[in-house]
Amino acid sequence: MQEVAGALRLDTELSADSAAYIEELYEQYLTSPTSVSEDWRAYFNKFPKGDQPHGTVREQFVLLGRNSNRGQAVATSAVSPAHEHRQIGILQLIAGYRNRGHQKARLDPLGIAPREDVPDLELSTHGLTKSDLDTVFNTGNLAIGQEKATLGEMIAAMEATYCQSIGAEYMHIVDTTEKRWIQQRLEGARGQYNLSNEQKKHLLERLTAAEGLEKYLGNKYVGAKRFGVEGAESFIPMVNELIQRAGAVGCKEVVIGMPHRGRLNLLVNIMGKNPADLFGEFEGKSSSKKGSGDVKYHQGFSSNVITPGGEVHLALAFNPSHLEIVGPVVEGSVRARQVRRKDIGGDDVLPIIVHGDAAFAGQGVNMETFQMSQTRGYTVGGTVHIVVNNQVGFTTSNPKDARSTEYCTDVAKMVQAPIFHVNGDDPEAVVFISQLAHDFRHTFRKDVVIDLFCYRRRGHNEADEPSATQPMMYKVISQKATTRTLYADTLVQQNILGRAEADRLIEEYREDLEAGKHVANALVLEPNNKMFVDWTPYLGHEYTDHWDTSFSLERLKELGRVMHTLPDGFQMQRQVSKVIDERFKMQTGEIPLNWGAAETLAYATILDDGFLVRISGEDVGRGTFSHRHAKLHNQVDGSEYLPLCHIRENQPRFALWDSLLSEEAVLAYEYGYATTQPHALVVWEAQFGDFVNCAQVVIDQFIASGETKWERVCGLTMLLPHGFEGQGPEHSSARLERFLQLCAEDNMQVITPTTPAQIFHALRRQVIRPLRKPLIVMSPKSLLRHKGAVSTLDELATGQFQTVIDEVDSLNKSDVKRVVLCGGKVYYDLLEKRRAEKLNVAIVRVEQLYPYPEKRLADVLATYPNLTHLVWCQEEPKNQGAWHFIAPQLVEGVMKSGRFIKLEFAGRAAAAAPACGSPYLHAKQQAQLVIDALAIEIE
């Protein structure tokens, strides 16, 4: 720009500084047109209307300049070029504070964390000097309530906003509305949190409770592990504020997932667990009525508290020591609650997930959980994440070795979540940032992260000696006053309360603990039980294999016709259309049903019976092997149609979601959903059964052991495509042996069904029977279209799931000396060969491996009076599959029978990998194991 006749003329070339200035003015103009001068407002009116991407403002400005007459003046106030240049520097300085002010903020309560110089916050970086401090400049869009201010006033406001106890990271967010919202809240406050005297007293009371419980436990149970909140006492008023604020805007449920640290304190001081019950656990008294139970800092809890908006139900999720895995479990539980309340992604249910600093940065399940947060099938409308940042991870680590990022929270930037770092020794800042985080989630339905900078006063646990690995840090900690002490001193100095009153809070809390009183000040002692699901109908049942899963034949046919009825003009892809037309014939009884036809009919009948159905996985709409086609795609406009959503009027919800490419987080999510919604069939399907290996922690820590550890029942169904088809070691085995190794105490069901009728009845049994146990289905691949793997509609309409299926051919059982037991796809290989060779060998299918059908199998084998050889045949290598599980069972069964029967194995030799990679070698091995099982002599 150049000055001409007292006005500014457009030049054809803009400097970078000038362009930045124009961008800031333009954004200010968009926010409030009257906040810029009349001349600039007239100029900006030339721009295309609408809130366009601000990254293009520069280019548009240049274009307008190039297309105008060089001699045409743009009217504006007469301002010296030097002042204009400094004004540009002011706007750059504002941007510097917004982008990097957090790097100067006083976040570490210990004051020892290294902080580097931040050049972007220096006057000289932007062409400014101290002599400019008293000069009045335009404030741009700095939200301090005035259009002009001195540079000194602006710096003071920005220092108070961005460089004190709160460090805000939000400029990575693309959405301008979200950024402006955060700016208004932060800059409008300027580090002043405006708590009333009563609010400050209440804050001190909550800090007193947090500290008081830890001191009481430390004195009463010396050396006992409790993973105390000491050093992070502000965590308790933080969670309290989140709950109360959520309740004030109509939230009905808050679901919390968190690790060990501070858990006992939250249970007692927020959720209202009776201190006497906690003391009993320290003294070794178990509250578990059955099973193994678990340590006290893994246990879940639920209660109701009162808030300004009414009663709110709190649920603390059970969690294992594999801490971060509880995150997606919480998200699934929240989604189920939102579905029940018909408020998906809304405000009725709030998830709060608490993390440790090292775990948040180090464990990939957090990335997976963030990635699902805005997807249609998994969104819950945003989560408040709290990182209890000890600054040394698990005490022994150096932050330089714990991550490659500046902050442990940087992973959250992948979904543009705002991150608010806050000093735990400033309780008022903690409360303010809790309000801000909640309100952001409430407004934008997106995740938000609070990074609570604190420290561990006792090390990793109370038996730890942290100075062994962190001598300098713990030298400072040993001399440091607690957060509660510091805040009490502040309130006394402000004459908000006297020293005696502050001390009396300590005594009153200790007296309440000793009296066994509840110390959560918002606890509802007689909660409204309509706020949560009644699980009573699903508890206390003994396991049973048998249940009537029959269904009206005429209604089956009608459902088949309903599912074949598509919207007018809906055009399917040619091959899909052929599948659907053929399925219609199957589901109306014209021809036998294949796997996909029976499975979809099972879902239809379950919906018709009034149960919700949710299915998710990486390719569940079509099915990895193109057998399901439950989601149809219009070839004309790309629209989707799900026939199962249109079974009948007012039917239960049917949800079918092709998931993100994740096993661990998605399976954990579905577990959380299933443990929250009992009146539903919840299904997770692996794209290939092998891929479930990536979610092994979910199976070990939750699915297999959740009931015995936490008395938490779950009816989740897992469909795991399993079978040796010559596709190599990574596409053959869902690791059946691992599931069987985990089986005990009737904790789950493992089946290897071989017919469409079997999967139909197994799925129906899973929900119709009031028992809730995980169901692991080793589902087939080649059997999906195998000519022998078919069932009739009558077989679906009548009967039930068969744990053992006897020989189907008309053999003379008195002549049979050799019986082959098997499960899954190998049955059809054995049957074909047996029939071709016309052998007098019976083939019995064990369709359910666990709970082991001991009586049913014994009854079947008893019908073979001259049995001398009993063979277990499997496709898997000998060290894998079911052999090591079933062999002891068979030996015991033979001994009980009192007969001399030789037990044999037929299968692949023990191997390190599940299968070979050569189709030729695979076929050779398969042929040999069939020959071995049937005892065919080959010359």
- How many beta-strand segments? 27
Distance between the termini: 98 Å
Average the pLDDT over all residues and give the rounded result: 90
| The level-1 CATH class of the largest domain | Alpha Beta
Pfam families: 2-oxogl_dehyd_N (PF16078), E1_dh (PF00676), OxoGdeHyase_C (PF16870), Transket_pyr (PF02779)
Protein name: 2-oxoglutarate dehydrogenase E1 component
EC number: 1.2.4.2
GO molecular function, one term: thiamine pyrophosphate binding
Please tell me about this protein's structure.
By secondary structure, this protein is of the alpha/beta class. It has four domains: 2-108 and 135-174, no CATH class; 202-528, Thiamin diphosphate (ThDP)-binding fold, Pyr/PP domains (Rossmann fold, 3-Layer(aba) Sandwich); 553-797, Rossmann fold, CATH 3.40.50; 806-934, Rossmann fold (3-Layer(aba) Sandwich). Helices cover 38% and strands 14% of the residues. It is built from 31 helices and 27 strands. The strands form six sheets. An eight-stranded mixed beta sheet has the order 6-12-13-11-10-7-9-8, with helices on both faces. A seven-stranded mixed beta sheet has the order 17-14-18-19-21-20-25, sandwiched between helices. It has a five-stranded mixed beta sheet with strand order 22-24-23-26-27, with helices on both faces. A hairpin with a 6-residue loop joins strand 15 (632-633) and strand 16. The longest helix is centred in the first third of the chain and has 24 residues, at 197-220. The model is unreliable at 1-17 and 62-77 (pLDDT under 50). It is an enzyme of class 1 (oxidoreductase). It comes from Acinetobacter apis. Residues 593-786 form the Transketolase-like pyrimidine-binding domain. This is 2-oxoglutarate dehydrogenase E1 component.
